Amino acid sequence: MSRAILSWSSGKDSAFALDVAWQAGIEVVALLTTVTERYARVSIYGVRREVLVAQADAVGLPLIEVPLPSPCPNEAYEARMKASLAPLRAQGIEEVVFGDIFLSDVRAYREERLAAIGMRAHFTIWGRETRALADDMLRAGTVAQVVTLDPVRLPREMIGAPYDASFLAALPDGVDPCGENGEFHTVVSDGPAFAHPVSLTMGGSIEQDGFIYADFGLGVDQHA
């Protein structure tokens, strides 16, 4: 079995993809996350770095951070990803596990870029029907909250909401239950891949670049 790292977004899909990878016997040895240098937050999701570090601790894997500028043109993104991945390939790590579900253009891009440095992409939850997948995540004990949303497609008051059956039932028509089209993103605090939960507390929220972001920090009872 090949050794792999997992592309960790800080959200529910990558967390569930990690558990599925483990169940399949894949040896995941680290998490890989892009972090915007200017804000010290997970790219796109806006999750604080302190939360990201706590998540990695909870799943028991080292964290590899890829620093990105803001704004980040695609050429800069590709150069920094290559600089982070090439040494891992030299260490015998052959695969990167992703939590993508159905966006074929994203999958093709990942496969192409990894093939260029002699690595493979592995999609452990690819092709699953997203409402059934959402239900599977919740049954497995996934705990997550909405950290980013597109106010054009979701009501603003859903920011910070628990990702649960009530949230799924309230989604407007046409919104993917897993947010795969970018309608929303989540921050995960517990689930089958976690040895212990991460305690999160929501502060305020801001609107920036057409999206609303919730500001989650670590709770006072955070695991030592």
Polypeptide structure, described:
- The protein is of the alpha/beta class and 224 residues long.
- The protein has a single domain, classed as Rossmann fold, CATH 3.40.50.
- The protein is built from six helices and ten strands.
- The protein has helices at 12-23, 49-59, 74-90, 104-115, 130-139, 165-170, and strands spanning 3-7, 27-36, 41-42, 63-68, 93-98, 120-123, 143-149, 184-190, 200-208, 211-218.
- The strands form two sheets. Strands 1, 2, 3, 4, 5 and 6 form a six-stranded mixed sheet that branches. It has a four-stranded antiparallel sheet with strand order 8-7-10-9, with helices on one face.
- Helix 4 links the parallel strand 5 (93-98) and strand 6 (120-123).
- The longest helix has 17 residues, at 74-90.
- It is globular.
- The mean pLDDT is 95.
